[in-house]
Each structure stands twice: as C-alpha cells, then as structure tokens.
Description:
- The chain is of the alpha/beta class.
- It contains 10 helices and 17 strands.
- β5 (about 100-105), α5 (about 110-125) and β6 form a beta-alpha-beta unit.
Amino acid sequence: MSGKTIRFGIIGCGLMGREFASAAARWCHLLDAPARPEIVAICNRSKEPLDWFTSNIPSIEQVTHDYRELLGNDQIDALYVAVPHHLHEEIYCAVIRAGKHLMGEKPFGIDKAANDAILDCIAEHPEVFVRCSSEFPFFPAVQRIGEMIEANAFGQIIEVKAAFLHSSDLDPQKPINWKRMVDLNGEYGCMGDLGMHICHVPFRAGWVPRNVRAILSNIMRKRPDSTGAMVPCDTWDNATLLCDAVDPGNGDAFPMTLETKRIAPGEKNTWCLEVIGTQASARFSTKNPKQLNLLEIKHGQQVWGQVEMGQETAFSNLTGGIFEFGFSDAILQMWAAFLYELEHGQPLTKFAGCVTPEETAFSHRLFTSALRSHHSATVVVV
C-alpha cells in the first residue's frame, strides 16, 4: 500500500459519514491501494453524532458545528459532504472554492438550477477533483456486467431495467424526516434520493434517455411529526420511468425502465439491474449478492446459467475469493475508486469509477423531465 495519506474532513456525520469512517478504519483490508484516507476533522450541526466519531476515530483533530471552519483548515485535503439536499449548492460550492477535493452525495443539488450552479463552480476550479457517491456498481457481479458492456458481449441492446426498491416507509406511523419534505428533499422525491444509484451504470454505458414517460406516486400523504401530530408528507414515494434510450455503439433505440421506490412491499433494500441483448443477457439483484444470472446464446440454444460470484472486486482485498460481498465492502471499493482516480487522473476501469458531475447533470435533466411528464401525463423530451 502506498504511504501517501489524503486527509479528510466530513461535513454531515449521519449514517453515510459513519460508513466512510468505518471504511477508512479498515483501509488495511485493501491490497495495493493508491493512497489511504485519514479523517482529521468533522462537522455536524447537532452534537450527538459527533460523540461516536470522537470515541472511535483517534485521528480527529478538529470538531465543529460550522462547516466554514473546515474550509480554512490547511490540514484538510478533501471533504466528504453528506447533508440534506437543500444544502448541496451552498456547501459544495464553498468546498470547491476553498480548493478542497470533494465527494458529495446525490442528487448533487436539490434541483437542476442548484446542480447547474455546482457544475459552473467546478468548471471555474478545474484543479479540484469532484465526484458523487454511488456504491452499488462496485458489487462484483455488476463489475462483471460492466466488463461485458465494454466487450460488446450483449450484442444489440433490446431492453434495460434498473431499480432501487426498499420498504423503509411502508409503516404509516414512521415519523416524518427531511427526506419527506419538499423544502429539504426537493420536488424529485424518491428520484433525487435514490435515482443516481440506478442511473450510474446506464449513464456510464452511454445509454442516454431521449425521452421519458413517468408515473409518480405519493402513497403516504401524512406522517406523524415528533409530537405525534399528523403532518403533510409531500414528496414522491415511488417513481417508474419508461425511457427511450439509445445505444451509442449503433445508434439504435431501446426501452429502459428505471424504478425508485421507498414503498415496495417484500423488499428490504434491493438494487437490481437487467440487461437484455441479442447475444447475451444478464440479471443481478443485491437480494443474492453471490448470484449473477447470464443468458448465453450459442448454436441457436438459449441457456440461462448461474455464476457464483465471490470477492472478484475491482480493487483487490484480503478476503478470500469464495466469500460473499456486502454493502460495507461496496463502500470500501467506492472510496478506493475515489482515491485511485484522484491520484491517477482516470478510473481503474470504465465501470470502477465514481459518478462524475456530468453524470449528475444528466440525472437532473432526466428527473426534471420526469416531473413534467407525470404532471402532464405525456412523454417528455429529456
């Protein structure tokens, strides 16, 4: 492992901030990593989350409730910012202007105007490396699908489906939080919160939607607040987007279905991808992270087979190849990808790279068009 250290600050010490801290603590699990992260500063508006960090991360030297204090710290090279969507434009732009490298959370701005402002700021500071978080494509089966896409193994693309489904909001008595408030989460609702996860692989493959017909659902219209009073819950819970996408290899169009659902009975936290082609097809779901289903067409025969996937990761690690891969492993791989591209100027492979700012911009075009499509009940050009 390289001896180079990238000193990080974290702004927003919630769940994903803790996941990054945990990944940094087990960095020795990676073999031949390009550099290692060291968390030296943290910022959060409330005190309670900070206690976990100071109790578990001995390298922390600065603790504050004001993110601006981290921007002026010369000991910080990069910042991970995981805050509610309405704060993205303000904080992301401040980080970039301060010359700190940035890993931000999706959707990279509460709306398209905010995303445009962030990308304008990035263009003004090309010396700053900026990427967006998205961990699911680092599952070994998805990396294998990426290799097949690069090798044109699918032939002509017939159809693509991608979905992120969970049921955390199925309970109508679950208290409302910021993700269920338009002022904080944005009008995209579940698309803003979950959509970049499923757009990552299609966008990296160059499967660009030309238009979209969207159906959005607000299923739980009220939820209890902290006092138990029922208050409006005004964000979209579920979204289904049928897109007319284009294969850049041959210019042919094909249907692509994208689903983001917070209320999907029977699901816990399921990310899935299906690619159907004339020469091969592939299906994967995190419900069974070891299983990749592949359809090969040989000599006129169509045969579905099951490949048992283990730790065939983009960035090698200590775990034996026969053992299953999980969410915390995907987080570790994603952060290795961030540091690799920061150090080398390009990703390890095409599909072993974090979401780019340009890819977030296209997601905003898509989600904005999806809102228009739903409200007008028509197909809208992206």
